[in-house]
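Tutorial, part two.
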Amino acid sequence: MKKQKIKQIDKNDYINAVEPKNTYNKKRMFKWTKLSKKQKKVLTWWTSNSPVRDKDLLIADGAVRSGKTLIMSFSYVIWAMSTFNYAKFGMAGKTVGSFRRNVVFLLKIILRLRGYSVTDKRTENMLIISRNDRINYFYIFGGNDERSQDLVQGFTSAGFFFDEVTLMPQSFVNQAVARCSEEGAKMWFNCNPRGPYHWFKLEWIDKVKEKNGIRLHFDLDDNPSLSEKVKARYRRMFKGVFYMRYILGLWVMAEGLIYGVFNQDMIINDLPRGIKMKNKWIGIDYGQSNPTVFLLIAYGSDHRIYILDEYIYDGKSTVESKQKSPSMLAKDFKIWLRKNGPMQQNMKRTSLRYDRAYIDPSAKGFILQLHEEGVGNISTANNDVNRGIELLSSLIENDLLRVMSHCKNTIKEFFSYKWDEKAQEKGEDKPVKEHDHCMDALRYFANGQRELLQRLIVAYGSIRKAA
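Running the prediction step on this input gives:
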């Protein structure tokens, strides 16, 4: 079918069309709210009366929960439907799954409320969107790693929308941009800030005028749907460099010690009197040429997280320089569980009961060995390094972590775990990969119990500071 251009609607009519008063659908549980000035700019920058209608791209960066993603995805589709017919468009997130959760789910609801027909071809990762005599095709891509660029090769597009573009490799974004070869194609980018040397900051934000684009910088106040109470909650969730990035929306360097706020007051010889441990978990970092670490972590009745015990075996540091097999380490794990288990009347200990153990997902052989030894409640961990560090940083800076003094390796790593300066120069946030095995085990636990830790930070972090 032949593609035909659709006349753009007038800016004033457009605002009225997408901002109805008190539009509410109980079945779909969605309600339009008042839009901020920047959100209206996102909606209208491409319209016929806009002074920047001839620009080729829009970049929206800034704070988390500042109202970027939803308004951008909606405006992107309305632009496409108002400008093209029978055309193909691209939409991308770090993964297809995350893009569906963060964008597609609510986008479909909004479009249907506005009278659009949306057919979701999940096996093809494509949305077919139509209204009256207009129909266009929106393909969903995941920009997860360098191989992702192969997914968009040969794809001809009239536009591309990138959600959280800083999480994608540069090669994928460059390849996707090159696919936008239709006349009148436009590109849309949104993201939260990273380091000042990140490739997107250097190549797109710093060169936005050269690329014939516009940039809108968002903060929490640019999202009218957030109450002051909710905004205060988000401000409590991030500290230090992550506060500057995700709340203030600044492109700042993560440098020096990663957990620089960790101090001697967080190291204790004995548990506080009357404190009971509600839940217990284990973080495991397994190594063959590197050390193996087990950490026993608990949630106290005082709403703090406690690191109660550690096990570490480093074959290189022993006198014999002897490596232990997975079978030997699995037996060590069971002995360590008995060591930390409850004392019985006969002065013998039974094995510790714990809620869940989180282990490095690459340690498949050791996981199998643990199962063969009858060890249960084992989960492969989420190995997202930066998200784990962000969460633990907030936990520590809100004074919600304690470490038993005999966990000497864990304590030593807290005081030495630092950002890789060479990686920073390339725009990457990476820890130095040395003396980090206890920190890895702790991060596996944190990613596994993310919801609990976030609730603790929001509910009790400010109380600690106030006290």
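The first strand starts at residue 24 and ends at 25. In part three we will examine how such features are distributed along the chain.
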